Input
Amino acid sequence: MRKTLATILCAIMLLALIPAAQAAPIEIDYWSVFTGADGATMQGMVDAFNASQSEVKVNHTPMTADDLYQKIPLAVQSGSGIPDVTIVHIERIPNFVAQDLIWPIDTLLENGIVKENYIPSAWDRTDIDGEHYGVPLDVHSYVTYYNKTLFDKYDLNSYVEDGYLTFDEVKEIGDKAKAAGFEDRILSLSWFRAQMLSYYAQLGDGHLTLDGETPAFNNAEMVKVYQTLKDLHDGGYTTIKGDDGTQLFYAGNLLIWPEGIWMKAGAVDAGLDFGMLPSISFTPENTKSWTSSHNFVQFADDNRTEEEDIAVAKFINYMGENSLVWARDGGQVPAHISINDVPEFQDLLQSFLADPERGDELAIYYYKYWGLFDTAFSRNGFEPIFGTMTIEDALAQAEQEIIDAIAAQ
Output
């Protein structure tokens, strides 16, 4: 009996020396639209979060945007396999709301997500009918690159000293460079939709609809954008049909290259000395750059627990507060305003886009039928500028295509 009691006491003492087992972390499923180099950057950020603490583990599933936008409705409708948090493009959120696929982020707001921590122009766009639906990870804009080596060679730097470039100055730059012997391209016609919407936002309020449903971009302001670019094209100031503006810029055969900030890495790899400005403007005072934003959202899921929501809030806050790598390696502009206090970020060319004093220069579009608009508006591209169809026909065709598509739903 004594031997048995001693054995029991010994066992109890040994157990007391063993540390209590830690509770298993809350696991959350995170889907994103990052599949290229930005996907690797994002995975690195997720790994860093997982390593920073033991309470939450994030399982990241990257996929193409097309795949994600097809899978999400099916998952919500089936009630199975719904991610706890998802990255979507901000333009898609109004349609998700209209389809009751997405939930307001009330629980996240109760657990540490603070509106004042984010760029207002990105945050405010997901206020819909008195509810809030998104937390911006970043903003990414369509900007203007210029070849600093060529600007030095042809004495063009005075045109960009104020940090802006106008359409009139593009002509002056072209004329001066050509007079000095420059024989290559001045300005590229690049990504049609983003380039056009940057300039359109500077005229009036840049609306795509007036009632939230019916398209309303077939107007004098959009005609002016087309005509402005057509005049530049016809005057010999732009690339022509068949040109590849990206390759021309990389090869040093293009002075001014409108493109997205996400293309910066390619210009660096090409060994170029280049600068970055906002989109070309009619006047500097009305400069607007087409901008999108990757937003964290939560799709409707009755099975998601409060503990999982709290874990999601912790994850989102970490991503905002530790977003330098997203700017440095991902080429983006973090939407968490704490990034402005990071000296290394201020040295990046795109940092001006995070300046709270310049937030009104970001043109973030809002339209329930963004996907229909994008397809229809982009269909004819720069053809009216090349002269293969009229501006009036291009706009009328795009408008009617959207109207028909809406009616067919």
Summary: Residues 321 and 338 are 7 Å apart (CA to CA). Residues 391-408 form the longest helix (18 residues). The chain has a mean pLDDT of 93. The first strand starts at residue 26 and ends at 32.
